[in-house]
């Protein structure tokens, strides 16, 4: 059985607002992306994931869509989109688009109609209630807003300007399926589906558990794995992809998804999605206070999490592999070491660790350059709605600005959203105008121009890893076995396929490590694919990838 193409692919995420600005308005756009396609082809990635570019009031930077089948003028036109897609295909790459199916903008005509009166035919396209339940939204406020016009409340798991669609209503589902078919007819190669595991709610909308000292409840058990989630995903798959001969890529973003659920979601026989973005590892350094309460990182916890998912989807299903995206801080600053001494080595080490697991790797724009977190100095610099709402709530709870700033500096989403660093010039080559968000001052030393022709650069290391996945079947398809589970510094594992075994060892720390392997002798003479030959000690951020032949 031939494996689907995406099992050997590497995906590159573009967050259009901050990738490349072609018209000097300080905001990235589609023409800007097209102008940088040779850079992406040179990196070797197979698929571009384009975060939302649709008309939007930009309250949540595009994840509040007011028109699903057009392009926001700040990003360009549908003609620009078609030209971009054609140019991507001309270079042998594919492109998937981000679709936001759980909620729309409150400026979307569907919601404008729905809120107009209780008798409007689209009233039931959203969740309206005379009395709200106690759910908390993901953006630090009640998940219900009272609409003055009718005195009723509507549900929004995110911002008040992102009302949730009511998937119980078949008209809603059919309208979304038609939209998805519209983009497939336009030639896109698949979808990244935003918070797709939240589309089925428990229709009783019961109150959630209220943590001590809090007033709002956590509704997660009532919408993160709703009663009809598998029915809806299977219906969508039938309605959207049936009768189409291409093999598309569909990745579902699923906060809170568990391995057992992911096996069902990604089992090809069930016709739901191809892979999911799970959040287990991105919460490992969250303290009891949540995302902005930063707790120490423990490599053993990461090994336990990745190991759990590697084993859990070894037989059925498929993993996505990611450190970063537009919602996460930069990994080299988070679990690497972004000091001048270790930034390059730690970025390469973390890339090797991630890319050689079994699953499809995702590169977030700038990861391949070791872009770092932004040196925020004040809470006034926070522009992301999740951060802004968190700051307001934390201040109301009496937290000091210094404490809040520490959380924002470490885990704020704006860290991932600073403009792409193309060169050391004024605005990092991102724009000839004034960027909508300041460029990271370290762009003078961290930029693409300095790296694309440097064989020792982080960019070149990503090229090697991507080539390895294309050329070595063991990387794409080999069985995974974790080693040294309890080692606090070294992450080690093997991959095995037929008569080829690969050993991957990475010192995930800025200090020397001792990491003797029980079967060291079998690796002493192995081929060195990346890094250093085997020896029982490892230098800070040292990595080694060895290959040997085994009896198949
Ligand atoms: O993110 C869903 C999500 O769970 C994140 O918001 C998460 O809560 C947090 O930021 C990461 O720890 C998706 C999109 O990726 C995000 O940009 C949107 O804000 C959100 O959905 C609503 O559409």
**How would you describe the oligomerization state of the chains in this entry?**
single chain
Number of helices: 15
Summarize the amount of helix as a percent range. 25-40%
Largest sheet: 8 strands, parallel
User: For the terminal residues, how far apart are their CA atoms?
Assistant: 19 Å
Helix/strand class? alpha/beta
Which blocks of ≥5 consecutive residues have pLDDT under 50? none
The dominant shape is: globular
Mean pLDDT, nearest integer? 97
Radius of gyration of CA atoms, rounded to a whole number: 23 Å
List all distinct small molecules, including ions and cofactors, that are bound in this structure: 1-O-alpha-D-glucopyranosyl-D-fructose
Strand percentage: 15-25%
Write out the strand line-up for the largest beta sheet, numbering strands in chain order.
Answer: 9-8-7-3-2-1-13-12
Based on DSSP secondary structure assignment, what is the total number of beta strands? 20
Structure description:
This protein has 552 residues and is α/β, with parallel strands linked by helices. The protein contains 15 helices and 20 strands. The strands form five sheets. The chain has an eight-stranded parallel beta sheet with strand order 9-8-7-3-2-1-13-12, with helices on one face. Strands 14-15-16-20-18 form a five-stranded antiparallel beta sheet. The chain has a three-stranded antiparallel beta sheet with strand order 4-6-5, with no helix packed on it. The longest helix is centred in the first third of the chain and has 16 residues. The two termini are 19 Å apart. The mean pLDDT is 97. The structure holds 1-O-alpha-D-glucopyranosyl-D-fructose. The site of 1-O-alpha-D-glucopyranosyl-D-fructose has 14 residues, from loops.
